[in-house]
Amino acid sequence: MGQENKLPRGQAERLLQLINEAEHNLKRIENGEITEECVSVFQVKFMQIFEMVKRYDLEGRHTAREFRNQIAHSDNNDLFLKELPNIKNAFEKLKKNKRKCGQIINKDSKNKDKRRFERYADSKRFGNKETRKKTVNALEDSFNNSIDNNNKSVFPSQSETLSKTVSDISEEVKKYIGDHQGLSNNVQADILNWSQRVSTVSEILTNGHFQKERNFLEKIKKSGGVDFFDNFEQFESEYYSIETADKSFEMQHYRKLLQEDISKLGDKPKKEDLEDFKNAYFQALVKSLTKNFNTRKASYEQKLIDEKRKKFLKELYEKIEKFKRLEQLLQPIIDDLGRGYLWDLSNQPFQDYGFDILKKYAALLKNDSALQEFAELLGKQSATAKEVEKKIIEEITISREYHPQPAQRGNVVGFEYSNEISRVLPSETALLIEPDLEGLFYMKFVEKRLLSYRYSQNIAETLRETHLREIEVTKSKNVTGPIIICVDTSGSMRGVPEQTAKIATFALAKIAMRQRRSCFLISFSTGIETLDMSAFKKTNALGTLVDFLNKSFNGGTDAQPALYECLRQLKTEEYKNADVLLISDFVMKKLSPEIVSEIKRAQSNGTFFYSLVVGDSANNSAIECFDENINYNPYDEYSRREFQERIRKIRYKRNTVNSV
User: Fold this and answer.
1) What CATH number has the domain bearing residue 622?
2) Is residue 390 scored above 70 in pLDDT?
3) Which residues of 43-65 are buried (b: 16+ CB within 10 A; e: fewer)?
4) Residue 4 has pLDDT above 50, yes or no
5) What is the distance between the alpha carbons of residues 254 and 419, in angstroms, rounded to a whole number?
6) Which of 232, 474, 526, 569 has the highest Cβ tally under 10 A?
């Protein structure tokens, strides 16, 4: 089937509905209900089904074509009935499309929030599982710009709150949302979560608001007609004293009608007749009062929902505007962050954090391929790095299992667990009646934990079973690991060194975001500041990175506190296999023997220590313990070429080691 003939989900729903309606009318005809209306409805449905299967190249189109004209021009019931066997045969072939329609309609959503709604949303509010799937289908299609409106799924009647919420969103905003797939999924999830929350909250508030009135209705229903009219003034006074009661409701009207009818019974009416009249008018009053109550209650609840919908849509529009602004500001790193992060960020009190600086460093990085190469190099673990890999192995088990013979079960001698339906207790199969418990039944079935009868005439059977078991195997592997960056922010780094340090940090941050690698930043002068850049889901993380890029470098230089923090991080589970980069002009004193000793211990565990030396004033004794010391001057073309050549040699050396 070509792509142009692919059956859209909305059309699949329509086709399934037409087939079911036609099938219903055909059964009526077969059962002898051969009316003009019944035959006419079937003919129309058959024609509509035929046009759809022809359009989408579906099953039964060739057979149905033979009877199309006969059905279309068959205004005589006798003629229709004469061709009924052939028409039924054609229709049976058309019915085969029900399975395809069901597959299209009932396909599980890939999004976890939508899938949770499909499976667990309140059936009282949103219908059964099939109806909830239709709701999700309609929601997705509402924000799908590639689907024609005629082919979009329609919200079921049970999803009026959702449908109204979506319809209140402007077409312009819907189109913008539809053009951003990640944003679209987040908006849909917000709408689903809100609709469930608002339905529950509104119901609770409404029930609380009308609690006294509902209690009154329950009270008079228990009283009965005789007691009610014998104590009419008391009940009437109690009702009108309730704050939510409908003061325009005329209880007296029913009392007057009752008295008029009683007066017709004469001076000495029978007790039974009086009771019958009182009960009859009481039932009419209660029915009318209940209808009045339910109407006002539903109206009140709808008013609450409408108010909350306006608030929700206002907040949604504000979030979308923030998203647009963030999309512009974070364009340099949007592909690395992902739009889901932008949506989370737009949910917070809006600040742009001076994000414009990201454009500056994105442009600088784009023009500095040398630093890009260097950033990509970091975090590539050596061949000695260990990784635990899970493997599946087969195990064969030989056992004896007892099975009852259905033809001669014998006596029940006890109970046991199994998944044999023929022996399962009724209390277990009762789980299938409740949709919420159906999953529990199937779980117990798979685990062979259904409580079952055990019979005396069981036959032993030897079984040979093959099981798959997961084991862990430790092996060496060249993996991409975490990064720790130490950046010198002292006064001696101002100017070109400062910009170089910031470009390198920005490059590593982008890589950490894109590859979801753990990345830890330590900036130091006379003290230290830290930022875990692997935690970008935290709302302040991106702002902290921007603060670093805006930071003015000043103060003295003391690398030792930063290196102590670095070594501490290397002892954590997340950063134990990290590569370390220290960016500085290295105008500093020699590192202490304790620090050097700790660095060598970390190196023996596979950690690489790099120094990026900015400028030509470094104290060589401060960098002699590093694995690689690389000089870089972005404004010296010879230095840039030398730097790139050095990076390539380091990459070649590490790749050679890893391949051994």
Assistant:
1) 3.40.50.410
2) no
3) bbbbbbbbebbeebebbbbebbe
4) no
5) 61
6) 569
Q: Which residues fall within 8 angstroms of residue 153, CB to CB, at 6 or more apart?
A: 9, 10, 13, 134, 137, 138, 140, 141
Q: What is the pLDDT of residue 645?
A: 78
Percent of the chain, pLDDT > 70?
A: 76
Domain ranges, residue 286: 212-350
> CB pairs under 8 A, 24+ apart, for 160-165?
161/195, 161/198, 161/199, 161/305, 161/309, 162/135, 162/191, 162/192, 162/195, 163/138, 164/309, 165/191, 165/194, 165/195, 165/309, 165/312, 165/313
Cα separation of 589 and 69, whole Å? 98
What pLDDT score was predicted for residue 385?
43
* Average pLDDT of span 367-376: 72
Distance (Å) of CA 470 to CA 221, 387, 392, 473, 539: 64, 16, 5, 10, 38
Q: What is the mean pLDDT of residues 294-304?
A: 94
Residues 36 and 144 in one domain: no
Q: How many domains does the chain have?
A: 5
CA distance 133 to 139: 10
pLDDT band at 220 (very low <50, low <70, confident <90, very high): very high
Co-location of 570 and 633 in the same domain? yes
- DSSP notation for 16-77: HHHHHHHHHHHHHHHTT---HHHHHHHHHHHHHHHHHHHHTT-TTHHHHHHHHHHHHT---H
- Residue 568 within a domain: yes
Q: Under a CB-based contact definition with an 8 Å cutoff, are residues 607 and 579 in contact?
A: yes
Question: Is residue 164 predicted with pLDDT exceeding 90?
Answer: yes
Mean pLDDT of 202-221: 91
Region at 396 (left for phi over 0; alpha for psi -120 to 50; beta for the rest): beta
Q: Is the pLDDT of residue 311 over 90?
A: yes
User: For residue 425, which phi and psi values (nearest 5 degrees)?
Assistant: -70, 150
Residues 451 and 527 grouped into a single domain: no
The pLDDT, as a whole number, for residue 83 is 74
H-type helices in 127-210, by residue range?
Answer: 129-142, 160-167, 171-178, 181-209
Check whether 304 has a pLDDT greater than 90.
yes
Strand partners, 474: 388
Q: How far apart are CA 329 and CA 325, in angstroms?
A: 6
Strand 386-404 versus strand 458-476 pairing type: antiparallel
* 134 burial via Cβ count (<10 Å: 0-12, 13-18, 19+): buried
**The domain boundary residue, chosen from 104, 122, 145:** 104
Q: Which residues contact 420 (CB under 8 A, 6 or more apart)?
A: 403, 404, 452
* Residue 512 neighbours by CB distance under 10 Å: 24
Amino acid letter, residue 454: R
Tell whether 203 and 228 lie within a shared domain.
Answer: no
Q: Is the residue at 370 inside a domain?
A: no
Q: What is the pLDDT of residues 92-137, one digit of tens each?
A: 888 888 888 888 887 777 778 888 888 888 888 899 988 898 899 9
Is residue 366, in this structure, part of any structural domain at all? no
Tokens describing residue 634: 């972005």
- On the question of pLDDT at 494 being above 90, the answer is no
The rounded distance, in Å, linking the Cα atoms of 598 and 594 is 6
- pLDDT band, very low/low/confident/very high, at 312 (cuts 50, 70, 90): very high
Cα separation of 657 and 638, whole Å?
Answer: 29
pLDDT surpassing 60 at residue 466? no
Q: C-alpha distances in angstroms, 372 versus 360, 364, 512, 608?
A: 15, 11, 13, 19
Strand partners, 465: 397
pTM, two decimal places: 0.56
Pair 436, 301 in one domain: no
3-state helix, strand, coil in the chain (%, to 5): 60, 15, 25
Q: Is residue 512 part of a domain?
A: yes
